[in-house]
Amino acid sequence: MQRQFQPVSRTLGAVFALFLVGATPASAHPAPFSFVDVRVDATTVDLEVVLHVFDVAYELGVEPSEVFTSGVLETAGTRLANLLRERLHFTVDGRRLVVDATAWSAPDPLVERQSVSLRARVALERGPGVFEVAAEMFPYDPAHQTFINFYDAGELTSQAILGGDDTSAEYFVGSRQGTLAVIQKFVPQGVYHILIGPDHLLFLVGLLLLGGPIRRLLLVITGFTVAHSVTLVLAVLGLVSPPGGVVEPIIALSIVYVGADNLLVREGRDMRVWIALVFGLIHGFGFASVLREMGLPSGALGWSLFSFNIGVEIGQVAVAVVVASALMALRRRSDLVGRRVAVIGSIAVMAAGAFWFIQRVFFSGGMA
């Protein structure tokens, strides 16, 4: 997964790299950086790759001081173009974008930046939705980093740094195709993460065990959705960010609480909507940690959040329909059996929540 950051001028990165050049002894690798500019429009993609003279010299088997001497770059074009073909890969909407060695321009010396530039233009069959760059430019240098700059309609809209374990960067184009690509990716991710999240599902099941009118159950599910959506957005935007070591044990306690409330409610007031609202806020922080690990596209943050939430809601509704239908059918056959299932189920919910709480506090470093 790539490390993303807010768009800044690439010139600043170049200045920083040059500063490192001046501050490092000549015998050491001065600035392990490369730059890849991707300029996307509806019919073409323009590429520019800027390589540091040190890396170029290593690949050509010459001294860095020799790279700009007469004749070196003139004969190195094919070799550098083949290097890019082998180590720099582009994918558009899941399909490999072929950039032949012949598509790259002759190396252009950038003497002031101590770099070499190569450019290419590739025609697209249709308007792109998602563009991916994968790069392992100079494997001989484990500290090497590649700065990826995505330009959309002439404006720098997203950046990523590739290096170490981060070998690819994904960009959703700011077009209808890009929006559809975001939806197609994050809706299934929302469904997937609610279905594989046993704590969120068990909390939801606990809320449904007592049954009740369809309208009441819909209010419970909606309350949970609204609450976790609010904190999910706040956390992803960085406005509120409680540590996972606190959030995860509280999520476990929320499961214990909903089971205990089921056992104590008897003929009292049904507080499940309020429980869903209050503890849904905590569960939203749990969903946010998943999204942060996925690496949200900075240029399509709103659509990705919306799509993920829709996916979570689809997953919740699917589970709720199955559980509520089964409980209703059981109660229609025998109200006594239905009540016993609710009691046994609530005890099981409490036991699972207590187990997760102990595990997350005492064996995972939580609540520290």
Summarize the entry for a quick read:
Helix 9 (301-333) packs across helix 10 (335-362). The chain is built from ten helices and eleven strands. 52% of the residues lie in helices and 18% in strands.
Describe the structure.
The chain has 368 residues and is α+β, with helices and mostly antiparallel strands. The protein has 2 domains: 3-174, no CATH class; 181-362. Helix content is 52%, strand content 18%. The strands form 2 sheets. Strands 1-10-9-2-3-7-6 form a 7-stranded mixed sheet. Helix 5 packs across helix 9 (301-333), helix 6 (214-236) runs parallel beside helix 8 and helix 7 (244-265) packs antiparallel against helix 10 (335-362).
Q: What's the layout of helices and strands?
A:
Layout lengths: L2 E3 L4 H14 L9 E8 L3 E9 H8 L16 H11 E5 L2 E3 L10 E3 L4 E9 L6 E6 L9 E8 L2 E8 L5 E5 L3 H20 L2 H11 L5 H23 L7 H22 L6 H23 L6 H33 L1 H28 L6
Parallel strand pairs: 2-9
Antiparallel strand pairs: 1-10, 2-3, 3-7, 4-5, 4-8, 6-7, 8-11, 9-10
Number of helices: 10
Helix content: 40-55%
* Domain module tally: 2
- How would you characterize the largest beta sheet? 7 strands, mixed
Please list the strands of the largest sheet in the order they lie side by side: 1-10-9-2-3-7-6
- State which percent range the strand residues make up: 15-25%
Could you name the key traits of this structure?
single chain, 368 residues, alpha+beta, 7-stranded mixed beta sheet, 4-stranded antiparallel beta sheet, 10 helices, elongated
